[in-house]
Amino acid sequence: MPRYEYRCRTCGATFELSRPMAESSAPAACPGGHDDTVKLLSTVAVGGTAPAPSTGGGCCGGGCG
Ligand SMILES: [Zn+2]
User: Fold this and answer.
1) Which pTM does this prediction carry?
2) What is the number of structural domains in the chain?
3) 59 found inside a domain
4) Distance 31 CA to ligand 1 centre (A)
5) Distance (Å) from CA 5 to ligand 1 centroid
6) In-domain check, residue 56
7) Cα 8 to chain center, whole Å?
């Protein structure tokens, strides 16, 4: 189950909750009892750029064949 980080706009506390993705945008109550919270960006980074293979080196440059 993914973890989401939230921040309370009332007291400024940040907290994490483990909840299904379907409920990621659902209101999360602050540990202090406040419900004015916002969801922060997930710290889990996925994806990225794969290193491109170096091109070069023809097969039949002239010797083979
Ligand atoms: Zn709070």
Assistant:
1) 0.59
2) 1
3) no
4) 6
5) 13
6) no
7) 20
CB count in 10 Å sphere of residue 36 = 12
Distance (angstroms) between ligand 1 centre and the Cα of 4 equals: 16
Specify the pLDDT at position 47: 54
Predicted confidence (pLDDT) per residue in 5-58, tens digit: 999 999 999 999 999 989 888 889 999 999 999 998 765 545 556 666 766 656
What is the phi/psi pair of residue 32, to 5°? Answer: -85, -5
12 Cα to the center of ligand 1, angstroms: 6
Tokens of residue 37, six digits:
């919270």
What is the DSSP code string of 13-41? -EEEEE--GGGTTS----TTS---EEEPP
Residue 57 lies in a domain: no
Domain containing 18 equals: 1-43
Residue 19 lies in a domain: yes
